[in-house]
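Lecture notes, part 5. Sequence design as translation. It can be helpful to think of inverse folding as translation between two languages: the language of shapes and the language of residues. The source text, in structure tokens, appears below.
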């Protein structure tokens, strides 16, 4: 089959690789109909996350059709049109029993590679480095889904492939981040980053009852989407002296009730701090350019919540003193997609959310290298490139 492979830092190629096969009786083989870029992929494409090997197939956000099932699969059948959350759950460990699917104790066969750093390993994820399981990713014609009954969700009639695609990762990640904010009527939420996850965080914050949503970015086309789709108030951080002061003045001096960081380790900013972080990151003296995270902590009101969706490594200059003295709550996780699927289906069917607006570029898998180039470098107004294997 054809698949998009990682062959080194900034070295991607569409190649022929072996088709996946059933490994255990709970497996399902899905023929991928749509798969999409994600900002998390850029961290290993750029060489900031270790654990990729030459020839690895990557990609973790996808939907498709079931073409083969293992002998013990009971609720997923050949021909089902399904969406698959990016993290893999088993449904039987303590973490899955508590709906913390990304922390599954069963699905990461390489947990020993994570344990020295994390203390306890996470669950497995498709196409996202060997410490996260070494699973073949979704930028391919076919993908093996372990524990098919747990991880394949039949897509209801009336929901298109394009809408279902983002229920795999962008929507549940954004929804989880908004839920972390403990939103009450009248609340103000500020979101750093207006990519796919940031837009879904802002949009679902609205659905959960936020009175005002601020979206912070530097790309006018992304900010325009946020304003048009869910009436966000927008901030171009390159056009203001201080995001913190802008938010303070816009909220009567108090600050947002909750702040969401939807950027992560390759964040952008302005001023000397950004230059310092960029230099240290290029020299591999730190893993993160964490300007958005620091800004969110500074801008949040006293006693508020900072929800961190961005992927980070070992963050330098973390302002713990500010967290303590302002009484902030920090909440973070990799998304628990399986928990949110029924509610996400309801949002789409009721017309509250149509995440297909994230698609700005739609192309065959053979053009995936180009698709990642425009996605990574924000060319042509790209929010998400979508591939059709």
């Amino acid at each position: 089959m054809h698949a998009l492979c990682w062959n080194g830092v900034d070295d991607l190629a569409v190649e022929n690789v072996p088709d996946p096969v059933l490994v255990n009786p709970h497996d399902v083989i899905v023929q991928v109909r749509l798969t999409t870029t994600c900002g998390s992929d850029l961290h290993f494409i750029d060489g900031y996350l270790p654990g990729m090997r030459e020839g690895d197939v990557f990609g973790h956000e996808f939907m498709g059709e079931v073409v083969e099932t293992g002998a013990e699969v009971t609720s997923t059948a050949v021909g089902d049109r399904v969406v698959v959350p990016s993290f893999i759950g088993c449904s039987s460990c303590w973490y899955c029993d508590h709906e913390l699917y990304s922390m599954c104790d069963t699905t990461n066969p390489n947990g020993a590679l994570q344990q020295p750093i994390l203390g306890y390993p996470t669950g497995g994820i498709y196409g996202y480095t060997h410490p996260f399981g070494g699973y073949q990713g979704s930028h391919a014609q076919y993908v093996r889904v372990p524990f098919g009954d747990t991880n394949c969700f039949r897509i209801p009639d009336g929901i298109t492939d394009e809408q279902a695609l983002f229920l795999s990762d962008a929507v549940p990640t954004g929804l989880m981040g908004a839920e972390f904010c403990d939103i009450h009527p009248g609340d103000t939420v500020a979101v750093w980053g207006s990519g796919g996850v940031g837009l879904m965080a802002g949009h679902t914050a609205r659905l959960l009852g936020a009175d005002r949503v601020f979206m912070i970015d530097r790309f006018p086309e992304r900010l325009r989407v946020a304003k048009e789709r869910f009436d966000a108030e927008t901030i171009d951080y390159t056009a203001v002296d201080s995001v913190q002061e802008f938010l303070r003045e816009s909220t009567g001096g108090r600050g947002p009730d909750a702040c969401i960081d939807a950027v992560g380790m390759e964040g952008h900013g302005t001023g000397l701090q950004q230059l310092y972080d960029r230099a240290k990151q290029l020299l591999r003296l730190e893993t993160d350019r964490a300007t958005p995270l620091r800004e969110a902590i500074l801008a949040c009101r006293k006693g508020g919540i900072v929800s961190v969706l961005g992927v980070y490594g070992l963050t330098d200059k973390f302002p713990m003193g500010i967290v303590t003295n302002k009484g902030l709550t920090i909440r973070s996780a990799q998304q628990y997609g399986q928990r949110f699927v029924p509610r996400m289906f309801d949002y789409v069917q009721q017309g509250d959310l149509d995440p297909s607006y994230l698609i700005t570029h739609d192309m065959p898998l053979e053009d995936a290298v180009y698709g990642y180039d425009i996605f990574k470098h924000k060319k042509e107004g790209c929010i998400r490139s979508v591939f059709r294997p």
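The translated text above is only one of many valid answers, since several sequences can fold into similar shapes. The CA atoms of residues 361 and 385 lie 5 Å apart.
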